[in-house]
Amino acid sequence: MATRQIVKDTEDILRKKSRPVERIDDRVLALLDDMNETLTKADGAGLAAVQVGVLKRVVVIHVGEDELELINPRILSQSGEQETVEGCLSCPGKWGITKRPMKVKVEYLDRNGKKRTKTAEGLLAKAFCHEIDHLDGKLYYDESLVRFVTEEELEQLGS
Ligand code: NI
Fold first, then answer.
1. What sections of 23-143 are H helices per DSSP?
2. What is the pTM of this model?
């Protein structure tokens, strides 16, 4: 395993659409391992493969007890609404309040190629939406942003 460099939002690759994984081979498994290590080191909630320069529909998410690896994830359904603070490892020092669904149901393949579904709420639902947006070349401040927040405001919000 190794950590990989996280791409910043000034780079064009983050605007590209990632391709579905057709075969879960050793390269995909190594990518997942490296992404987990990179995310742990960066102390973030989620990471999409494009953020380490790989245009594959692969995501890792670490939220609370959940450590998830998602291959070819897609949102099956969503409901409710939440307005919370959101940031991105590719956009250091930049934070915003976003509007996201409160609950989502996601379908994906795990590393063994088994199809799974997961229903998530709150923070985990936000992480799913954020990372799946990355796979389509979107950043959180494109469509979901309500407004950016300042550093002082962020402290007051306690996030
Ligand atoms: Ni991000």
1. 26-42, 122-135, 140-143
2. 0.95
